[in-house]
Input
Amino acid sequence: MKASKITHRNEYRIKVDFPYDKQNVEKLKQIPDAKWSESQSSWHIPYSKPAFEMLKVLFPEVEYIKKNIPEPSLVSEIITTPDSPTEQATEIKQFVPK
Output
């Protein structure tokens, strides 16, 4: 079993790779917010110390593979503010999601 840091839907997660085994899936589901990803074709859990600690308790043999993952991409938020009752002004604001 291997675990690695990934960016999934613009947030950091821990990808957990292992050959399919129903018992391992049931154990992994014990970790809050563990999810299957169709796009990654793997399970992933929150990128947090409690989730990683629980992963290590449930699967002591897990191997953590360090990868250099770039920051989640900047996304644009469009904010519309009316200048007058009949007009709208649009401002684009760049931010890094939490």
The mean pLDDT is 79.
